[in-house]
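WP5 quarterly update. Target: 18S rRNA aminocarboxypropyltransferase. Source organism: Ophiocordyceps camponoti-floridani. Length: 374 aa.
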Amino acid sequence: MVRHKKDKRSHHNAAATPRPSFKAACWDLGHCDPKRCSGKRLMRLGLMRELHLGQRHNGVVITPNAKQVLSPADADLLTQQGAAVVECSWARTGEVQWSKVGGKAERLLPYLVAANPVNYGKPWRLNCVEALAAAFCICRRPDWAEQVLAPFSYGATFLSINATVLDQYAACEDDTAVRRTEAEWMQRLEREYAESRQGGADDMWTRGNTNHGPAASSDDEENEEDEEAASDLDRRSVDGIYLGKRSLDPKPGEPDPHQDKDPFDITDSESDTDAMAEIRRKVLASRTFSNPNVDSSPTAKAKPTTIPRPQQPAPVEPQPDSEPGSSDDDDEEDAAFDNIIDATPVTDKVGLAKLERDRSRAAASGGAHSSRLR
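Structure tokens (predicted):
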């Protein structure tokens, strides 16, 4: 008898994801990224089953090629047979073989705005889970919509941004009423857009960048400026005694001493002007600006400045036998080399005598050999 281990993982998933009360299916064409595909995620969680290409579905089929709009009249069929969607990319809808997907009750979704990260804010660009949730809401099953959107972070956002129009669709009776509601909703959106584009002068969006506009002064700002000026005056005085460099404003009836003053004059008083003049005189009288030939006597005349004649360096006699950078050591080496070249070769007398003996022996042996041949 073989005992098999219990599959704790499957038991855990079954407990974490209960069996849904709705029926959902899809044709997965493999266009989307598995990590971002809502259909694959629903199938992994057990909330939707996969249909093979060419397999027909008996329930409501949400497809962009349908002719009839989904309405609450399809609620009974959706409850009994469920709903099916096509898992494909909106950019590759032309590659889909629509003849191999579908069913008897193919339906088209009305105007809705997507909330998924790929097509956020785009109308009609819903993914699989959003299409299923929209179908459940229109068929008056919002609890199913919340259940299928629960695993996704943008599920609540999708229901909130489409809450008004979904309630209007669910209040209709048939597809004709749904189309009429959709047309009224589209006209409302176009009217609001036109009004926002043709807003009056009071519209803040038509005045350009208000950060660069002239700031409108108000009574509160003027009061704040007066308070700042008063506080500044209080800081410069102690017990009514003014501590600043400039005098206080004149009393009523007294002439203003600063009325005719140059606005670009940065000096504070005449004493400052005198001090600046004294500094200027000292700078001009300094050694840098003084004349070195000035004479203290009033009758002395300025002597002309004598400029010494520039001294030219003594000419250097050329040395043809020497090279630049040569020294006495180089001269000694050259002399030794010349002595070697000019030296008389020494004759080796012992070697010459031996050479003569070898030649005589060779000649004698050559003569004897020739006599034998005769």
